[in-house]
Amino acid sequence: MPRFIPGLLTAAMAFASMQAMAAADLVLFNGKVFTAEPGQPLAQAVAVENGKILKVGSDAEIKALADATTQQIDLGGKVLMPGMIDSHSHPVVAAFDSMGSNLLDEVKPLAELEQWILAEDQAGRARRGDVISIAGVSSAYWEQSRELGKIFNQGHWAVLPVVLSGIDGHTGWANNTMLKRLKIDAALVKSLPEKERNYIGHEADFTPTGYLAENGWDRVRTQLPEPTEAMMLDAARKAVQINNQYGVTAWMDAAANAGNGDSLFELRPTDKDLGVLPLYRTLAHNGELSAHVAALLIAYPKSKPADLEVLGKVMQQFQGVPNLTFPGIKVFADGVMEFPGQTAAVIEPYKNSHKRGELLIDPASFGKLVVAAEQHDWIVHVHADGDRAVHESLNGIAYARKLNPTPVAHSLTHLQLVEPSDFARFKQLGVIASMQLLWATAESYTEELVKPYISTSAYQRQYPAHSLLKAGATIAGASDWPVSSPNPWNAIAQASTRKGPLGVLNSAESMDRESMFYAYTLNAAKALRLDRQIGSLAPGKQADLIVLDRDVFKVSDEELFETRVLRTFFAGKQVYAPAS
């Protein structure tokens, strides 16, 4: 049988390669292409075949791959980059909140607030069942709990249950009618252990003021009338659409097994706790899930290793659902730092209470939980807001590294305070810093609800992005939507300026925009454990692409903040373009 000589074999292979490369079904050219591949310069064009990146290169190289059947898009010099990835979000809940009355963190004078709620009710947006339910309420209102009571416990409101849901997801307020319905009264408060009693705002005689935090808030939040399945499916559909509009093509759902009626902070999940997972499955089967969803299942902070078995059973029920993956578990290590909550676990006590917040994990056993998760091939994603929560979470991961030195892509999220001695540990332990840098601003939260209650040195360490980056940490971008906007362009610009209505929050912690581009692409893909499939424009990866309306490498930070997405592609198919 004839044999190819080496030269002929090489030529034949090259010809076959050219034939394969000529099968591009989409090319985008004449652009400014950011690949998110480290060290790779900007390119001009991209070729896509069967939903995956075929090649990135010059216009001439890519156009050579087109034939009569290829869709060709002239970018006209526009920037093209990978789809944005959000490493911590709650999009279905967020979209549901946006379908009703939502203050979106705006602080109105109380008289104006009352009139606004009246108008919302008259417009038919304010009620869940018979409850006046307002989402997106700023923590700035909680200092005025008694004043809220003077308005919403009398007159028109005296017979109406009223619930104001804090935008932070950890706090809220309810009027006396709602509290009475749920039997939250002085007798209950007095009967509670001190920790739980502190979660319910009360007078000296234990009479509730209406303010609630953590599992105190869960007592109200979980008793709101349940939305219908159709409403929740609409919310899930809207969540995908909104994310695609902002160029987001993947996210980590950080509480996927929790439903509206579940207590987040005391959740002891079973294999019946499915949360929003059935909604994602329905969208996927309908061909409507134009995003990768990395679903995290909440685990009780003090879980024993054996407790994780039920989470594996939940994951098994959804194996094979397109675009739905299960990278691991979510654990709450603490709460929030803002007054009056102050449930974030801190090293230095709060100045007003002389307490150190609430550490929800057990330092003595958390490492064993991390080890157990790794034995399931799961990551642990930890809500760690205060520096004590960060420190103890890192200690738990360090325990696991002693048993298995190979780094696992665990992540800590929020990171409002981090002790300087812990900066370098992120790189040493391979822990990803999932940061919501839209929060890095001088506004009422940082200046009025945090600054007076912590030390000067701690105040200067809020959201220490640059310090972590300088220490070698991998920074992943995140929104925590609905706590803040899912728009990554707002966060990318804010990470640079750190400006707010009350000044600048420690400019030394500013992040450069190129690092932020990586934070929302390749680094976030690592946090989702999907960096082999998405996160950069490399041959073989899925063609999740976005086209932008401005040169994000050159415009000012103010202009960067207003960036708009002109096209979003998921697996090579356009899933968003603004209406003409």
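That was protein one. Protein two is written in the same sequence-then-structure order:
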Amino acid sequence: MKHLFFVITCCGFLAGCGGPAEPKSEVPSYAHLSPKHGGHLRVGYAIDPTSLDAVLGRSGGDAYYWRQIFDQLIDVNRDLEPQPDISLATSWDIAEDPDSITFHLREGVVFHDGTPFNAAAVKANVERILDPKTLATPRASMTVIESVDVLDEHTVRFNLKGPWGAGLNMLADRGGVMSSPTRIEALGRDYGWDPAGTGPYKVHDVILGTKVHLVRNENYWGRDEDGHPLPYLDEITIRVISDQTVLSSALRTGEIDVAYLPYKDITAFQRDDRFQIETMGGGGIAMLFSFNVEFPPLDNIHLRQAIVHAIRPDVINKAIFFEQAMLADSGMWPTGAWAHDPDVRRPSFDPELAREYLKKGGMPDGFEFTAVTNNSPVLVPIAEMVRAMLKDVGITMDIEVLATGPATEGFFQGRRYGMYLTSWSRYPEPDWLASLAYKSDGFYNAANAERPDLDALVSLGASLYDTDARREVYHELNQKVLDDAWFVPFVYAVTYAAAPKRVQNLDRLMGWDAKMNLREIWLERENAPVE
């Protein structure tokens, strides 16, 4: 059997180097074929996981790993519509007096360690998230849950403090991931590197900095639309590959088979008939300034405004993203998200205005601060460009480069920096960002500053069941955050997935968050037996 190799860069955000496009060749068509089981898919990804435990992982990129291992209580399609056929809950009832959601669970499902999935397991998972001692990443988005009642083996009720219009969508992410309570209790802190979910693949081996090896869950409950058992692949090796030059070269020569393309090489691959390409506009935020609004001197709003008005995102888009990304026209909800507001007032390049803000902030001759970024091959050169742009208006930005995990922890929890130059994953359910970043106790609120006005908007937006009413709330919240120069995106990502045509179901690779989901990917293998 031939092994196929699969490489993913971070949400398509990472640029790389590559040579000219190779000559086009005749490509066999596999469109008429039925899915085949078997094969070893080797996946490459630029960043180590911070944890394979979705609840404790700190990086959005962790989802490339944990989505293969776990199922959610509720899962959704790209339009954020709940889908019972791919969820651990087969139905649910929402009550308003008192507020509660009752879930009817899928029967016959077991965790990878043999522990039954049932209502008691759901209760244990939710209570683990809500326990402040856990330091769960999604906790702030789940605190509307007051208690969890086990009604019978396969029926569980969430008793709520109020309406939770965002609830079903939030359960499609980290907060709804179900882990084996038995394995958590047995391994304690080590659970993050040997987790047990109910998902299509099981963890076989982890070597940090090198690979995560997954094997097919033979007891997986999922089926495709024709009733065939999922997943199709026997095993997946996710290799940590950070060198983008290696990525482009390997994809062209066939050493690897799928990649989220580096921006520099998109045009060349589009011209090469050997490859199929899938895209998602607004697949994330490729360049973002996140500020700790209580970290001197950036606790001064005028100085933050000076920084954001000194930046030329069009120049960065051309130099780093080869104009294949999108200039941000709104806030943290990018193009394609229903909360996206292209009419919002946001900062634009204006060096004279930047100098005026320096005067208002009491620093007419400029000031010096340290920003942290992670060691992405895209963000590091962006940081250098930003430093030069700020120097033009008299601001000196020192740069500290760390791996993703330490950078994220150091900024959001360690509070050692005033600004984080980073990228951000696509989260079309607006409460994910609102609760975790804007809420006073949110994990990604670096200052955890008390802002009753923002907390009230976050709570209101999460409570409403009408999408139009929610949209109005998030537009107001979006404006406040941009006016505060708190989270300011400059470039939205466009994700480009490329693969030769023997890699099947590429159109199902990217879900609602643009992360990879491999349970329906299959390989047309040369000389494969008919199944």
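The chain has three domains: 4-69+199-274+501-523, 84-182, 284-493. Keep this in mind for the problem set.
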